[in-house]
Design goal:
The protein is mainly alpha-helical and about 170 residues long. The protein contains 7 helices and 2 strands. The chain is globular, with a radius of gyration of 17 Å.
Length: about 170
């Protein structure tokens, strides 16, 4: 876990969960944005009807979770939505790298989602990615996925800057 950036080890103190700076969080999310948007691009080159139905179903669940402000469901369905593209990219290395990066910033996902009263913006952004997938327009799916994750990253970093002592 230390080699994956999840823990730090200090002699005579033991292991602790690694604390990231705002800059490190922004860097990790920027890399995730590039990799997930690439996954959206290449997965769109091999869409399936089953995939479209699955994504549309997830999107509907995300809309309902947003309407009821059920953050636990939102996070679960959102993770499934994003993971769909890397899993269907056909690129195992991409999946591993993304999972490692996501593990490093996992604790910050709830922070950003919980600060929003209206998750509708994210629903609309997912809709744009989904439309790209449905239309087999990889460039569209890629562009909107990157925009979506960059928006999330910017809001998270801005939110964290409001906490005194958070570097």
């Amino acid at each position: 876990m230390e080699s994956e950036g999840l823990l730090t080890f200090e002699q005579n103190k033991g292991s602790t969960i690694r604390k990231l700076s705002r800059e490190e969080i922004a860097e990790i999310w920027s890399i995730i944005a590039v990799l997930e948007s690439y996954a959206a691009l290449i997965s769109t080159q091999r869409p399936t009807e089953k995939g479209v139905v699955y994504l549309r179903g997830l999107h509907n669940k995300l809309k309902k979770a947003a309407e009821t402000h059920d953050l636990a469901k939102w996070l679960r369905f959102n993770m499934d939505f994003h993971n769909f593209f890397s899993k269907h990219s056909g690129n195992k290395t991409l999946c591993k790298v993304l999972q490692n990066l996501k593990n490093q910033i996992y604790q910050y996902r709830y922070t950003t989602v919980s600060m929003h009263r209206d998750l509708g913006k994210y629903v609309q952004q997912h809709e744009s990615v989904l439309k790209g997938y449905e239309a087999t327009d990889g460039k569209m799916a890629q562009r909107y996925m990157k925009f979506h994750i960059d928006t999330f990253k910017d809001e998270l970093v801005r939110h964290l800057s409001e906490f005194p002592g958070f570097k």
